[in-house]
Design goal:
Layout (H helix, E strand, L loop, with lengths): L23 E6 L8 H5 L5 E5 L4 E6 L2 E7 L5 H11 L3 E5 L11 H21 L4 E5 L6 H14 L4 E5 L13 H10 L2 E5 L15 H20 L2 H4 L5 E3 L10 H10 L30 E4 L5 H11 L4 E2 L15 H5 L5 H16 L3
Helix pairs in contact: 3-4, 4-5
Length: 364
């Protein structure tokens, strides 16, 4: 008689549990180890520059203005892997910091700047394919150039996602000029990661207390998510996958107000979309079947109750671990908040730590 699988000397034993997948950090930033002086080649005084101080320390300047001090975690893959191993992170998803978008610049110059970054990301991923996944950046001040770069990144460089700013080139997501780009993302199966960049609303009031990042970024993200929904973009592109950084900013905490205004003032709100905004967060469709996950947020909220609200609104399959590594406003130990939640089931934690990112990025 054949012994049951997993048995010894006729005594059956339960199959060993499958190992828990290693966490995937969807929100990390990478810059090249150096690049030419873009202003000298293309003009303009706001191009980011990397001023190296030694092998491990540098400063990002925008023209002659100080922007941020960084260290080798921002460009050295081996250094990042050391941190990942120490923190138990299996894979990082690499994207540029928003200062590198350069939507203000001449579009052809910005396209060349984007290609330089995208090729660097692709090289890092090719050297460490099990540890990194790459996101592209594209010159969205010119939609056709952006689509051209998107296609190169997907078909030539193997990048699975694209990171874009919340108001690229001064355009909101419902701008008809941006629709062909979102359409191309859907056709090419490229996931879209939205990161707030250069807050526009009330900027003159955001000069103190680090308010552009603390207050401005959540507002920018809420505006971006709301225009994507109210503008009917998700309605017209049912296969488009979009993830919003920092837990969706202020959007999840104002969804009741957003839905209420849709219902009571359809003459002002329900103009380009007839679908209730909350339906994009729903986990079941109108027939009660599981709805496809298209609207995602990352987990970077720094607050247990805020994370509970995200879980209630979106479900675990719409929330992906994000840390903002290696910057100080991020989560110092990626996934620590998720792991600390006593009321989250092991299955929910696994989804948040790895499963949702895998589905968003279409990793198989």
């Amino acid at each position: 008689m054949t012994e049951p699988r997993g048995s010894i000397a006729g005594h059956s034993r339960p199959e060993p549990a499958s190992p828990t997948p290693a966490p995937i950090d969807l929100h990390t930033h990478l810059i090249p180890p150096g690049w030419e002086e873009w202003a000298s080649s293309f003009g303009g005084e706001r191009w980011p520059r990397l001023v190296k101080h030694d092998a491990c320390r540098a400063t990002i300047m925008t023209g002659q203005q100080f922007f941020r001090d960084v260290d080798d975690r921002s460009w050295n893959a081996e250094r990042r892997i050391e941190d990942m191993d120490r923190m138990g992170i299996g894979c990082q998803v690499l994207s540029p910091p928003p200062v590198m978008f350069c939507y203000w610049a001449d579009a052809r110059a910005a396209a060349a700047f984007a290609r330089m970054q995208n090729e660097n990301v692709a090289r890092v991923v090719s050297r460490h394919p099990s540890r990194f996944v790459g996101m592209a950046t594209v010159p969205l001040q010119d939609c056709q150039l952006a689509i051209k770069e998107l296609r190169t990144c997907r078909e030539g460089l193997g990048l699975r996602a694209v990171e874009i700013g919340s108001c690229p080139g001064g355009r909101d997501f419902d701008d008809p000029e941006l629709f062909p780009f979102f359409e191309a993302c859907a056709v090419l199966d490229v996931a879209v990661f939205v990161h707030p960049a250069t807050p526009l609303a009330g900027q003159e009031r955001l000069t103190r207390y680090y308010f552009p990042l603390i207050v401005g970024n959540p507002l920018e993200t809420a505006l971006a998510a709301s225009t994507l929904i109210y503008g009917g973009v998700l309605e017209r592109l049912p296969s488009l996958r979009v993830c919003f950084a920092h837990g969706g900013g202020a959007f999840p905490f104002t969804i009741g107000r957003i839905e209420h205004r849709f219902n009571v003032r359809p003459d002002l709100v329900a103009i380009d979309s007839r679908i209730n905004p909350r339906s994009h967060l729903a986990r079941l469709d109108e027939r009660g079947a599981a709805a496809p996950a298209r609207f995602y947020v990352d987990s970077l909220v720094h607050d247990a109750d805020a994370l509970r609200l995200l879980l209630k609104l979106f479900g675990a399959d719409r929330i992906a671990l994000g840390s903002d590594y290696p910057f100080p406003l991020g989560e110092a130990h990626p996934g620590e908040l998720i792991e600390s939640m006593p009321d989250f089931s092991p299955e929910e934690k696994t989804r948040l730590l790895s499963g949702s990112a895998r589905e968003f990025l279409a990793l198989h």
